[in-house]
Amino acid sequence: MDISEMIAGLESDLKEITSVLEKCERQRVRDVLTQEQKKIEKELEQQRQQKLQQAKKDSGVKTDTTLKGYTVKINNYGWDQSDKFVKIYITLKGVHTIPAENVEANFTERGFNVLVKDLDGKNHQMTVNNLLYPIIVAGSSKKIKTDMVLIMCKKAETKKWDCLTQVEKQSKEKDKPNLDANTDPSEGLMSVLKKIYTDGDDEMKRTINKAWVESQEKKAKADDFDF
Predict the structure, then answer these.
(1) Predicted TM-score (pTM) of this structure
(2) Left, alpha or beta for 60 (phi > 0: left; psi -120 to 50: alpha)?
(3) 72, 178, 176, 83: which is closest to 115 by C-alpha?
(4) Is pLDDT at 182 greater than 60 in this prediction?
(5) Domain boundaries in the chain?
(6) Exposed, middle or buried, 155 (CB in 10 Å: 0-12/13-18/19+)?
(7) What is the DSSP string of 95-133?
(8) 3-class state of residue 32 by DSSP
(9) Which backbone phi and psi does 168 adopt, to 5 degrees?
(10) Is 133 exposed, middle or buried (0-12, 13-18, 19+ CB in 10 A)?
(11) Are strands 122-128 and 135-145 parallel, antiparallel or unpaired?
């Protein structure tokens, strides 16, 4: 059976189920028929799109899928979340002015790939393969806004995400000081101070040094009165 025959059959099915729905009085039966009607409509649309693509191919119309220019990695983004979605905000000036088909988004259970083609002579891409928790592919989508692409990842579970990816979580856990139950609390504090001192700028280091000197002076004075 070719595509035209499938479309004709689906159109007949849709016409018949619509006719039955108009005469149906029981709500439960109407609900079942309505669900079936939506399935047929969706399948019919898919077959029509497939027929259109086939017609373009047969007529020699080719879609240019090659990337023009060079591709750069997207680094400018932020993220937020609701109970149902993790939202990634990708800032790209002028993205709303290019054809919508130039913005592609594909999803997997633990990641997504965004490709924006031919924006200011460049392609922009963001790939994440290690989201913190699984997402529902079918419920995820993209939206194009002014100077921004919004990626909507539907959560598989309505739990709060502490970070976007597993790599970020591992990095945070690695940076946590080891506060073992058998460890002297002062050692844990020293570990934190050392890390702040190492990672801090000059101003931070001066502040810590000053605080350290003052604490040592107070300790020395206290020792002088300890008989």
Answers:
(1) 0.51
(2) left
(3) 72
(4) no
(5) 3-58, 70-155
(6) buried
(7) GGGS-GGGEEEEEETTEEEEEEEEETTEEEEEEE--BSS
(8) helix
(9) -65, -40
(10) middle
(11) unpaired
Nearest to 147 by CA among 83, 98, 80: 98
**Where does 70-155 sit in CATH, by number?**
2.60.40.790
Lookup: tokens for 6: 């499938």
Q: Kindly give the pairing relationship between strand 122-128 and strand 70-73.
A: parallel
pLDDT band at residue 69, thresholds of 50, 70 and 90?
confident
Phi, psi of 156 (to 5 degrees): -75, -30
Which ranges constitute the DSSP H helices of the chain?
3-23, 27-58, 166-175, 185-199, 202-224
HSE-up of residue 122 (Cα within 13 Å, Cβ side): 11
| Cα–Cα distance measured from residue 142 to residue 152, given in angstroms and rounded to the nearest whole number | 6
Tokens of residue 48, six digits: 């029509």
**Cα-based angle 193, 197, 203 (whole degrees, multiple of 5):** 125
Q: Which two tokens stand for residue 78?
A: 């932020």
Which two three-digit tokens encode residue 49? 């799109």
Q: Could you tell me which of 75, 178, 85 has the C-alpha nearest to residue 126? A: 75
Query: For residues 34 and 198, which has the higher predicted lDDT (pLDDT)?
Result: 34
pLDDT tens per residue, range 156-167: 999 999 999 998
